[in-house]
Amino acid sequence: MASKDEFRLSLQKASTPDRAPTQRERPSAPRAAKLITEPRLIAKALRSTAGFADVVALVPGIVKWQDWFPVATFSVCQKFGTAAWLDIWDADHFDGFTDMQRCVSDCRAWFSAEGYAFWGAPQTKTGRINCYFRAPTAGNYICTAQLQSYNGAASVECLIDNSSFGLLPFNGTIVQPHPCTLTADYHSFRIRQVSGSFFFVGLTVWRA
C-alpha cells in the first residue's frame, strides 16, 4: 500500500485546450540600458539626491569625483576589480522577453511582479541581488546601483551588509549612488525587491 507521501500515477483529462497567446499579447522588453561607470555622471546623481548636504557635511571629500578609485563592477554578463560573487535569487525567465539568452545578451536580469497570472506566474516580489566584493582599504565608498523599472514604477530596498539605506522608488532607469564607510574586507551590497517589476543593470563600487 502506498504511503501518503508517495507520488501515484493518475490519468488526467484536459477537456478545454489552452489557447496559445499571440506574439502581440506577449510583452516586449524595453531597450537595454547601458551600464554607467563614468564617475562624473555618478557624482551628478549623488548631488541631486535628497540628503546629500548631510552626507557631504560628514565627508567633504566625497564630491571630488576626480579622486575616486574604481573598486568593483557587477553586471549579469561580467565582473571587474574586486567583484567576487554575484548572487541573483528569484529572477524571472519569460520566453521571448527575458529568457536566459536574452538576459545575458542584454547584460541584465528581470524581476517580475503583477500582471502575468495568465501565463502561470505566481506574481511574487521576492527578487534578491547580492553583490559580494572586497574593499581594499578602510574608508569611504560609493556603491552605485543601476536599475530599470518595467511597465510602471518599482521600489527596492538596498543594503550594505545588514545596514539598510531605506526604500528606493524609481520609474524608468535610475543610477543611484549609496555612500558608505567600510572596513578593509569583504562586503555585500544587497538589493531586495519591494514592489513593481524591474531589471538589474549593474552595480559599480568606488573608493571615494
Number of helices: 3
**CATH top level class name:** Mainly Beta
Q: What is the CATH architecture descriptor?
A: Sandwich
Spatial shape? elongated
Number of domains: 1
Total beta strands: 9
Percent helix, as a range, is 10-25%
CATH topology: Jelly Rolls
Unreliable spans:
none
User: Nearest-angstrom radius of gyration?
Assistant: 21 Å
Strand content: 35-45%
Mean pLDDT: 91
- Main beta sheet, described? 9 strands, antiparallel
Give the N-to-C terminal Cα separation.
68 Å
H and E order: HHEEEHEEEEEE
Structural class by secondary-structure content: mainly beta
CATH superfamily name? Answer: Galactose-binding domain-like
Fold and architecture overview:
The protein is mostly beta strands and 208 residues long. It is 11% helix and 42% strand. Strands 1, 2, 3, 4, 5, 6, 7, 8 and 9 form a 9-stranded antiparallel β-sheet that branches. The model has no long low-confidence stretch (mean pLDDT 91). The protein starts with 38 loop residues before the first helix and ends with a strand. The protein has a single domain, classed as Jelly Rolls (Sandwich). It contains 3 helices and 9 strands; from the N terminus they run ααβββαββββββ.
Question: What features would you highlight for this structure?
Answer:
208 residues, mainly beta, Jelly Rolls, 9-stranded antiparallel beta sheet, 3 helices, 11% helix, elongated
Topology:
Layout: H1 39-47, H2 52-58, E1 69-74, E2 79-81, E3 83-89, H3 100-106, E4 109-111, E5 128-134, E6 139-160, E7 163-170, E8 173-182, E9 186-207
